[in-house]
Write a structure and sequence with these properties.
Layout (H helix, E strand, L loop, with lengths): L2 E6 L4 H14 L8 E6 L2 H8 L1 H12 L3 E5 H7 L2 H6 L3 E3 L1 H9 L3 E5 L1
Parallel strand pairs: 1-2, 1-5, 2-3, 3-4
């Protein structure tokens, strides 16, 4: 099974729109990967919480079957945990997930 973990940490809106979320929206429907997970970490959590356009894009990504989580330490620091949870993004300790992914059969890409 081909699994992809996208680690999105950039606070740059163009990176979010033209790379992370554009690619994230097509990877399962086009059969590029069997399973995919979007990890929101650091400045991307704040950016997402503040930008309605990105929220809409993330919703579309999740509707394709991509799972998502957010670094709970980061989202708590930014005060956006509940807002992101309401979008279907699970607050978690992302370091644990990333470590497991790196030690297993997941491919990991970071933006």
């Amino acid at each position: 099974m081909d699994k992809l973990l996208i680690v999105w940490s950039s606070g740059e809106i163009e990176v979010a729109k033209k790379l992370v979320l554009l690619y994230g929206s097509v990877i399962l429907p086009r059969g590029y990967w069997d399973e995919a997970h979007l990890m929101v970490w650091g400045p991307s959590a704040k950016l997402l919480a503040e930008n309605a356009e990105l929220q809409t894009m993330v919703t579309k990504v999740l509707e394709t079957g991509v799972k998502a989580s957010v670094c709970v330490v980061c989202s708590d620091d930014y005060g956006v945990t509940e807002q992101l949870r309401a979008m279907g993004i699970e607050p978690t300790h992302t370091g644990e997930f990333l470590t497991q992914a790196l030690k297993s059969n997941w491919k990991v890409v970071t933006f």
